[in-house]
Amino acid sequence: MSDPGMKLNIEVTNPEVFEAIVRRVFNEIKEEQKIQLDPWITQNEAMHLLRIKSKSTFLKYRDLKKFKYSKPMESAKYILYERQSILDFIKQGIVEDEG
Description:
- The protein is mainly α and about 100 residues long.
- Helices cover about 45% and strands about 5% of the residues.
- The termini are far apart.
């Protein structure tokens, strides 16, 4: 096995083939490791996905039910957001520019 800190120089003559190889290797490693993202994320993670810095903007979208959320405990402070609904919201192109 090679040293993980060792650098490898590769001359790419066909970028499409190289990209296909990298994607295949990544997918095989992902499948092998069974990498799965948690379907429920925190407000900070949701804001990061949306690239929103303003909590008031984020809460406006939440109040408009643009994505799904859950309060698994009685406390209103503990709210989780459904990752897929955030991603779907982004795909819709509804996120407005704050600037």
